[in-house]
Amino acid sequence: MKENKFAEFVTRSYVNVLAASKTALTRVSDDRGDVPGWVLVTVMTAGLVVAIWSVADGQLKSVLSGALHSVSQP
Question: pTM of this prediction?
């Protein structure tokens, strides 16, 4: 009886995996994409980089200079 339930579980799992794979492949093959979402992510990332860079410009320069100095002169 346990073998029958295990076989049923494996079969159902296999069918569920196939159905999920088909759904995922259908979504991936959709050529429309989410352009507004990607544009928003790109613009927000660029904004964060500019904001962080403007606040930490001096500290970043000193860290980079110190790192380069320590590598060039032991």
Answer: 0.41
User: Using CA atoms, how far apart are residues 49 and 37, in angstroms rounded to an integer?
Assistant: 18
Q: Which residues contact 60 (CB under 8 A, 6 or more apart)?
A: 53
Spatial contact of 67 and 74, defined as CB atoms under 8 Å apart: no
pLDDT averaged over every residue in the chain: 79
Side chain identity at 42, as an amino acid letter?
T
CA distance 7 to 15: 12
In this prediction, residue 20 has a pLDDT band, given cuts at 50, 70 and 90, of: confident
- Residues present in the chain in total: 74
SS3 for 7-73, per residue?
Answer: HHHHHHHHHHHHHHHHHHHHHHCCCCCCHHHHHHHHHHHHHHHHHHHHHHHHHHHHHHHHHHHHHHC
